[in-house]
Automatic annotation (TrEMBL), chains A, B:
<keyword id="KW-0547">Nucleotide-binding</keyword>
<keyword id="KW-0436">Ligase</keyword>
<protein>
    <submittedName>
        <fullName>Acetate--CoA ligase family protein</fullName>
    </submittedName>
</protein>
<dbReference type="Pfam" id="PF13607">
    <property type="entry name" value="Succ_CoA_lig"/>
</dbReference>
<keyword id="KW-0067">ATP-binding</keyword>
<dbReference type="InterPro" id="IPR051538">
    <property type="entry name" value="Acyl-CoA_Synth/Transferase"/>
</dbReference>
<dbReference type="InterPro" id="IPR032875">
    <property type="entry name" value="Succ_CoA_lig_flav_dom"/>
</dbReference>
<dbReference type="Pfam" id="PF13549">
    <property type="entry name" value="ATP-grasp_5"/>
</dbReference>
<dbReference type="InterPro" id="IPR036291">
    <property type="entry name" value="NAD(P)-bd_dom_sf"/>
</dbReference>
<dbReference type="GO" id="GO:0005524">
    <property type="term" value="F:ATP binding"/>
</dbReference>
<dbReference type="InterPro" id="IPR043938">
    <property type="entry name" value="Ligase_CoA_dom"/>
</dbReference>
<dbReference type="Pfam" id="PF13380">
    <property type="entry name" value="CoA_binding_2"/>
</dbReference>
<dbReference type="InterPro" id="IPR013815">
    <property type="entry name" value="ATP_grasp_subdomain_1"/>
</dbReference>
<feature type="domain" description="CoA-binding">
    <location>
        <begin position="6"/>
        <end position="101"/>
    </location>
</feature>
<dbReference type="GO" id="GO:0043758">
    <property type="term" value="F:acetate-CoA ligase (ADP-forming) activity"/>
</dbReference>
<dbReference type="Pfam" id="PF19045">
    <property type="entry name" value="Ligase_CoA_2"/>
</dbReference>
<dbReference type="InterPro" id="IPR003781">
    <property type="entry name" value="CoA-bd"/>
</dbReference>
Amino acid sequence: MLLDSILKPRAVAVVGASTRPHTIGSDLLKRLIEFGFKGGIYPVNPKGGEIEGLEAYKTIADLPDDVDLAVIVVNASRVLEAVDQCHAKGIKGLVVISAGFKETGAEGAKLELELLERVRAHGMRMVGPNCLGVVNTNPEISLDACFAESLPVAGDIGFVSQSGALGGGILNILKDLNLGFAQFVSIGNQADVNAETALEYWENDPEVKQILLYMESIPDPVNFRRLASRISKKKPVLALKAGRSAAGASAASSHTGSLAGGDRAADALLKQSGVIRELSLRELFSSAKVFANCPIPKGDRVAIVTNSGGPGIMATDAVCGHGMQMAQISDETKAKLREFLPAAASVKNPVDMIASAPLEHYRRTVETVLADPAVDMVMVIYLPFLGLKDIDVAQALMEIRAAHPEKPIVGVFMTTSEFFSKLSEMQVTVPFYMYSEEAADAMKRLNDQRLWMARPEGEFPELPEDTNRVMQIFRTAANEGRHELTTRESLDVLDAAGVRICRSGMAHSEDEAAAVAEKTGYPVVMKMTSKTTSHKTDVGGVRVGIASEEDLRREYRDLIGKLEAKGLLEGLEGVLIQEMVKSKRELVTGIATDPQFGPMVMFGLGGVFVEVLKDVAFRLAPLTDIDAKDLIHSVKCVKLLEGARGFTPAQMDKVEETLLRISQLAHVHRFVKELDINPLMISDKDGEPIAVDARIAFDPEAVKLAL
Amino acid sequence: MLLDSILKPRAVAVVGASTRPHTIGSDLLKRLIEFGFKGGIYPVNPKGGEIEGLEAYKTIADLPDDVDLAVIVVNASRVLEAVDQCHAKGIKGLVVISAGFKETGAEGAKLELELLERVRAHGMRMVGPNCLGVVNTNPEISLDACFAESLPVAGDIGFVSQSGALGGGILNILKDLNLGFAQFVSIGNQADVNAETALEYWENDPEVKQILLYMESIPDPVNFRRLASRISKKKPVLALKAGRSAAGASAASSHTGSLAGGDRAADALLKQSGVIRELSLRELFSSAKVFANCPIPKGDRVAIVTNSGGPGIMATDAVCGHGMQMAQISDETKAKLREFLPAAASVKNPVDMIASAPLEHYRRTVETVLADPAVDMVMVIYLPFLGLKDIDVAQALMEIRAAHPEKPIVGVFMTTSEFFSKLSEMQVTVPFYMYSEEAADAMKRLNDQRLWMARPEGEFPELPEDTNRVMQIFRTAANEGRHELTTRESLDVLDAAGVRICRSGMAHSEDEAAAVAEKTGYPVVMKMTSKTTSHKTDVGGVRVGIASEEDLRREYRDLIGKLEAKGLLEGLEGVLIQEMVKSKRELVTGIATDPQFGPMVMFGLGGVFVEVLKDVAFRLAPLTDIDAKDLIHSVKCVKLLEGARGFTPAQMDKVEETLLRISQLAHVHRFVKELDINPLMISDKDGEPIAVDARIAFDPEAVKLAL
């Protein structure tokens, strides 16, 4: 299935095996033998003879019939030929170590494309090119087809690395940290097999209990989201995505666009996929350690057991800083602790057994605290004290862990690195950290995974829109050679998409304006709407709080006069007369399009503060209903919606609906490039969200292509 | 001087020395001997005889005359007597290891106070009680009067620890990390010697090049700030202050008060003192390592040299994430690099020498990049590659460092812990980290210290205030048994303090209101001002945008009618008629009083957003002019002041002056407990900051005591 021919082959051929020392063709073969691959290992070399004690085959055609995987290390120019020969021989799996493809420029990219076409046509699967290889530590397979420095240690991690060199470095460190892995795939240029292939392959593999990804790019975000959001519900998926500062933000004309820079899109994708994003290798390993040795907790209530006050305080700081709770230990538990702890000990959380606590106190205290139903996780802190050995305390914790496998236990051992060296030679079943902050970070990861697994799946609701009307507006504008809609058109599109817009009417003369205002009811707002001038406010094209017809007529004449003086009458479509929504709460929502990840929905605080306070968040379209809720709750200003400061609570279902509707609009009509609803006002009266101003930019060529 | 008798004694007496193994009286004596103290070591034990091969003195009176320091380990009940005898013998320095004082409750606290009085009366200095001891690693002294687990390593750190057990743990880890220290003081209950004593003692000690503090409390913040802000200009001071989550926030009635929780005050104190605050032990050590091995850079331009792309990207992310700059390497430098690096290498920053880079490439690349005047610091990344040993690259870097001592070089070695074990046995002169994020964190510390050292000292400007008027307002209110001023009184106090308040007048009738409004000029704002009702808005006591006399009279009647209906007329002082300041920028400033740290000044975004967005910052009063500037620039909304979004730039000097004036008000009149200016409006017209509403709470008893 999928990658079986590559990760569970019956026999492996090394195409380009070599007798020359310190070449990949030599090292890789040695490694395969050294790690004890359980199937046949067949070197291929035109010279034949013997390599590393094995008979070398002169051609691929000469190979025995049980070869599932060919590891190819020949020069790039000879890879295609080798692939054809492998196909002829019935080989289904390829690992192309050879470099000289896309990474070298246009020529190489062409060669890579040819290679991929060949692989696809032959119905083969390929890891690479330009990669480090693959590993499977299952003892019945013992495949190490990889030229990393150290021999792998078996464990339950599935690890995908995009960077070859870094992948090797990470393998070294994993070994050093005593973190074993089940399978490793260095995807290199990821021409065929990529992170998603591995995710899917490991989805139901009981040997892989957590998945680690090192990524520099995510070529197919849609597929990644589809797979990762499903698989992360079954096992933790941790990702280190490099390239955060590479702010590929193109010049954007909207608020949403200008705030969408950096790696907002990648961040949104990983969040919506339930992938735990790590920002450094240290954190990646720290998290992997906790997932390798702890169950997912039932809640976020942490108890701390310590033999020193200071670290207990620091641990409390870190736990609370992560928004987890300090467990309220029951009176019963306290009484039990009092039975054996000395008077100077504190039986409140953090439980301070004092410096002289013997092993027996550690044992009984941890067991007693662990048994308290108000405790979901326990952090145990040890500071060296004369007569009590770190390793003995660690052993005791592992015994307790074995007896109580249902709750996470995390150890903080502020001792020397010698202790950690000792651990790396043991079969460890509890995650041990040097510092309490690291332990708290790790517990936060457990809690994040718990929350994600408990989060409802969410649905993509289908919301009716007047598609004909939407298309007609865009077609008209596209035919006029524009790439932005006017204010009126933008509001009309939103209206057609089912978004509540403020009541407005168009006027082309002073009298028309007065008539519309009469119908709307004073006070009103007057706004120019133009095919050429989108920055209305900058040219004095917006007048608010017009209280009477007299004022209206004066403002109308003034507005037209100013525009005329500035030579801006030409593109003028008319003047919008709008109801004046009574609201002190101005929000913003909109769409920005990431060149690679597609449309994203933004939501947050609007008005003059948008770009100053940046209290906004993003999610990739399409949003599920749960994504919409989540997006709303990920900005600080949500408190204004919930009714802080005496405000009428916002109609949250309608706010969510607004986000879902623009998400759908952008997802369905991919020619929509940028959209701003600023402000989206929350009515003081009844909390209804109302779009008061809008701006839409689009790709006219894409409109013409749309049906 | 100060602590010479304790840290540089000619001879040491151990009062309570013991032959019984595993007692402090035995361990401590052994340690003194083992570490090779250069002066006399005299055990004191009533039984006399020989202890650890030394003649024991039966009484303190019997001791030779060269004893400067007595280390006291006898039972708490016998400490006072011992101190008296030491005094009689002419001993000036005391380290009281014995526990049983303040930490045990009221009885112990009384004993500690007696002890302190005795020490003061005798003109002695004392470390402790309830401490771990002191260390001085200077080879001419070699004093280890401390019962930590491991023998100290010499270095240039001065280290003060409040927690005994944690201090010991830290000493272990420092040793493990090969971070030596010059002197160590475990201050325990800090009855006499505290962190400030040590800071002052180390100020001009060339052996102490950086100071590390572990603190759980800061008993004398004023003195701490005075000393630390001076000393941190000479050498880095790093602090780990535990107890962050202990949100000792009492119920506060003002915005400023409610936002002042947690450890805002400690944070402000450390910032204003130039102390680099570390939030975890890992970071504390990481920073100590960089300061121990690097000069302070001249700027923040970082160059990265690597043999692998991925870590280079991650390092760039981390450097940019800290707001430092990626150095723009000159064309000249690039050309020089091209001379020897292979074609596949990248000579832009990050400089990627590719995986196969030999030692010679490391050497030449680092030297070339280091020589570029556009480079202030260099991060060198090494990933294991066949044939190139980590330790050889490290050696090369140390040689380069010796030849170019003026620019920081930081190493990132993504290799095994074996490498770091090897380092700990070497004389290391370059800081080496496992991960690039740690190296970037460390470089940020260097840059923070550079910025602090370049920061002007600042002055406490004396600003004239009408003190008589201020006092009269508070006295009147205090005499009426109130602890809050009315709105009018609050604004009057600000006016007397020289803060620009909006023009307003008091009215006690409809006609008076009309007359005041006529003078003020429409539109006006109408506000109740009451001795009993401070939440004006909640009871409909604020009316804005009153445009005409007709409206004014109607609103006045309505206001009075509503108050009457609610039974709120009694405390009513009158109705304020205020000019309506035209402003879209509502800021907030104010005073909150921390029970321990005293008054703090807050500044940030005001209006309805204060508590939702929390875009505010704090500094301890009194502010220097530089503190005021710094406070203003530490909130996001400063951009609104600088003229973002087409606003008239605020008059920054006047905003600063406003902060300085309320700082002075609170600093001089300590009975002011809370003060809110919300909003502090920035005039649309000319950018002037104007206090539009205010609220002041005070301690009436303290007013009565004030002259």
